[in-house]
Q: What sequence folds into this?
């Protein structure tokens, strides 16, 4: 008897234990897939669990798994929008800085005017 993966006896015990519930999940979530599996697998009564892998095709890109996995993924480039408005996208920060400068300027003007009198 094999003593587990790399000598780790119970490494996959939880995995195999939970896999026995997978047919119930597949039957309720994907009845067509469960029906296809039942019609193509010769004897489901002898299996401990039911496990399938599905790889879809996207726009001619494909994923292969035999014996290694090869994935081709197409991503769209991120396009940054052009700045809009008077100050562009940083309008909020510029406005806050301008308000602070105006408040400090008015405060200095009032302070200097009161000091002279």
A:
């Amino acid at each position: 008897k094999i003593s587990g993966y790399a000598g780790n006896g119970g490494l996959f015990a939880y995995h195999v234990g939970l896999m026995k519930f997978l047919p119930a999940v597949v039957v309720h979530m994907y009845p067509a897939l469960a029906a296809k599996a039942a019609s193509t697998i010769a004897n489901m009564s002898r299996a401990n669990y039911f496990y399938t892998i599905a790889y879809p095709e996207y726009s001619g890109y494909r994923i292969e798994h035999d014996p290694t996995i090869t994935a081709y993924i197409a991503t769209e480039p991120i396009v940054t929008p052009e700045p809009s408005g008077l100050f562009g996208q940083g309008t909020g920060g510029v406005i806050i800085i301008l308000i602070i400068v105006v408040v400090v300027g008015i405060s200095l003007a009032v302070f200097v005017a009161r000091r002279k009198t």
The chain has a mean pLDDT of 71. The first helix runs from residue 13 to 19. The beta strands are 63-65, 69-71. The longest strand covers residues 63-65.
